């Protein structure tokens, strides 16, 4: 009886054979992949995610996100959720489509570019497919009667699919026409308190990037059409990025002017150019939206005052793709440990081998034991394609980016039985070692979920290295 059938009868088991992961494979005696595509025009993340069944292109600028990609995205959302909860933020959902009247009140309607989708309903009413939600968030607060200063601050966030009529989509999920973002809108009773909120959220963003094993560069930025009193962008160093920053070799200050001859901070002349990709943006808005949209609260003297507002965005689709772009090799995906679709893949012996029977039994026991570890629950998968050699499945595991591959091979029939552990970390060669089963389970029990190293305080410029 096949391992997959045994496992399915005993456990609710994750199996590679049942995983929808359509691969793009090269035909025999050919160096080119199947299909009418020019690989020279594809970024590393796009090629890897297409070839390994993480995403599938639907049409130009639009992609299906497949099960492994969606697991990674959901883990990224869970990571962001934890930091939003630490800030005291509450999740909501804002409509994608709103009446143009809100945007006309804020003054942004007249300045909308061609990349924003506008539409008209059956009553000839002008609508907009929201690219950002500052107006909607301010209007929501304006609808709350008798909002008191005692209820502030209020932090509201959401995940929303955004649409942008990109002229030239590129690099897969890095610049697509449909993408997922996390938006946070904060409301304080004074500008001073809003500035404190701004620093807290900025610090949380740096922690998120650290947990993704991506060091972030935070730079002052133009507020653009969103406006406000201050604005900062978060960048990661990335070869397919669209910006070039000058990093001072003396003090690590980032000069955004690419023709600058001296550091703006220390006046040093030594610098290096870093190609970066924007992955987040923050805005200190003050009353930019609360005044025109009448979002007010009653202060301690019961006098109506405009809410002091700030907004924050993270491009989750872009962060996911940028993580793959920065951490992977040309042949193998390396996920940030925190968002790897599965932490562990178990690879049992090949069907027909001398150790197959023992390996089948041990694989089931090992899967159950690892799923009893709280931080590994539903984070283990078995590569039950036992018609394939162990070597072929190890290569597949490394290309897909599983952080740990557990090989239940020849050593499983020795006394005591041992399991081979292949650890696959970003920017490092695979590390292989073996442990008896009880020690292996203890090893993974003590291996707490990966947390990024602490970053510098918000407001500092942090040099990124990929």
Automatic annotation (TrEMBL):
Q: Which UniProt keywords are listed?
A: Aminoacyl-tRNA synthetase, ATP-binding, Ligase, Nucleotide-binding, Protein biosynthesis
Report the residue ranges that make up the Aminoacyl-transfer RNA synthetases class-II family profile domain in this protein. 39-348
According to the UniProt entry, what is the EC number of this protein?
Answer: 6.1.1.15
Sorted alphabetically, which SUPFAM superfamilies does this protein's record hold?
Answer: Class II aaRS ABD-related (SSF52954), Class II aaRS and biotin synthetases (SSF55681)
The family database entries (PROSITE patterns) matched by this protein are listed as: AA_TRNA_LIGASE_II
Question: Which reactions does this protein catalyse?
Answer: tRNA(Pro) + L-proline + ATP = L-prolyl-tRNA(Pro) + AMP + diphosphate
Name under which the protein is recorded: proline--tRNA ligase
Native source organism of the sequence: Nesidiocoris tenuis
